[in-house]
Write a structure and sequence with these properties.
Helix content: over 70%
Distance between the termini: 17 Å
Shape: extended
Strand content: under 5%
Number of strands: 0
Number of domains: 1
């Protein structure tokens, strides 16, 4: 339990450091594009490849895949319904924006700190 709290405090400290650097002007708004590019093009693909290295494909992996497709379709419908009184462009934008919301970029490193990387890829492990 103590190890988990120490890791969580480490992540909170990193977030606090980033906020402090923003307040002091060390990191500017213009730097966000560079940092975002690094995260999306280097960090996220590397994390996904690392977690997929222990992946074993079996029929059990189809359940999360199908669930992901179904939930994305539901979110598309919610985006369309939310913009139902607007024009076609607004409906389309609503569908793309609401179904494309992804917190995986931020949560993947956090979850990897507490669970083995293979757990994120759907590989089966004895508990």
């Amino acid at each position: 339990m103590g190890e988990i709290l120490i890791r969580a405090l480490g992540f909170i400290s990193i977030i606090a450091l980033g906020y402090f650097l923003k307040l002091k002007g060390v990191v500017r708004r213009e730097d966000a594009k560079v940092l975002s590019t690094i995260v999306m093009n280097i960090t996220l693909p590397a994390a996904l490849l690392t977690s997929a290295s222990a992946l074993t494909l079996d029929s059990g992996i189809l359940i999360p895949l199908l669930l992901g497709f179904v939930m994305n379709l539901i979110m598309d419908w919610v985006g369309y319904w939310e913009a139902r009184d607007r024009d076609l462009v607004a409906k389309s934008a609503g569908m793309v924006q609401i179904s494309g919301y992804n917190i995986g970029t931020f949560t993947l490193p956090f979850v990897q700190a507490f669970f083995p990387a293979a757990y994120l890829s759907g590989a089966r492990h004895p508990l």
